[in-house]
Amino acid sequence: MVRAVWNGKEIAKSDRTVEVEGNAYFPKEDVQMDYFEQSDHQSRCPWKGEASYYHVVVDGERNENAAWYYPAPFEKAQRIKDHIAFWHGVEVVED
Fold first, then answer.
1. CA dist 5 to 9, 25, 45, 80, Å?
2. Which helix (H) or strand (E) holds 61?
3. pLDDT tens digits along 33-85
4. Could you tell me the CA-to-CA distances from 20 to 48, 57, 67, 73, 84 in Å, in that order?
5. How far apart are the first and last CA of the chain?
């Protein structure tokens, strides 16, 4: 089981994560979306495509652009479609 925790709250938990480049991508249905706000930030990966971001908000604290996902990943990255990954202090731990 893999969990994502920020500001003392478990924001994602799954036994179906996909690891890509050292990052655990959680299926969206295993993520507590109540803690997420859409961000306007985007980035681009040459083989995964255009990434979009979420801010993580827990107990009034906001972690800017702490989660990302690929809404329309390129063919080689289709296995992370509808998955979310974390950084910026979000702790990802394996139980």
1. 5, 14, 25, 20
2. strand 61-69
3. 999 999 999 999 999 999 999 999 999 999 999 999 999 999 999 999 999 99
4. 10, 25, 15, 13, 11
5. 5
What are the residues whose beta carbons fall under 8 Å from the beta carbon of 59, sequence distance 6 or more? 7, 8, 9
CA distance 91 to 77: 24
Q: Are 56 and 36 contacting, i.e. CB atoms less than 8 angstroms apart? A: yes
Structure tokens at 28: 């969206």
Q: Which amino acid is at 88?
A: H
Element holding 56 (H helix, E strand): strand 49-58
R_g of the chain computed on alpha carbons: 12
Q: pTM (2 decimals)?
A: 0.96
Taken in order of first residue, the domains within the chain and their CATH numbers are: 2-94 (2.170.150.40)
